[in-house]
Amino acid sequence: MIVAIDVGLRRIGVAISLEGKIAIPSTPILRKNRNQAARDVSDMLKEKGAKNLVVGLPKGGSSEAEMERRIKHFISLLEFDGEICYQDESYSSVEASELVSNKRDGKFDSIAAMIILERFLNR
């Protein structure tokens, strides 16, 4: 199974692909702090039997280097021994906002993760 995450400050969007063909949004993870979120993501990866983790990274923009550093630090906190791949997440939030009207219920974050996973599967 392939799992994709979109790391945010309040929530971490989650999407899965069972056979590497179709991306499906899953339940997002609420983020109270970095360590709790890393534990919850690690537990979710274990529960789902993930072999690959796709992580969205923003490309371009003035804060690209800072965001990449923060996201890679967060990923270093995970207990996961599968393959980790990084995928450009540019404009995934814009695409997600076109598909979801309510950005506060968490579905938005997982739709963004689904878009990131679709990009990875289609490359």
TrEMBL record:
Domain YqgF/RNase H-like: 1-96
Gene3D superfamilies recorded: YqgF/RNase H-like domain (3.30.420.140)
InterPro entries assigned to the protein according to its UniProt record, in alphabetical order: RNaseH-like_sf, YqgF, YqgF/RNaseH-like_dom, YqgF/RNaseH-like_dom_sf
Keywords: Cytoplasm, Hydrolase, Nuclease, Ribosome biogenesis
This protein's record includes keyword Lyase: no
Family: Belongs to the YqgF HJR family.
Main function: Could be a nuclease involved in processing of the 5'-end of pre-16S rRNA.
Record protein name field: Putative pre-16S rRNA nuclease
Record lineage: Bacteria, Pseudomonadati, Campylobacterota, Epsilonproteobacteria, Campylobacterales
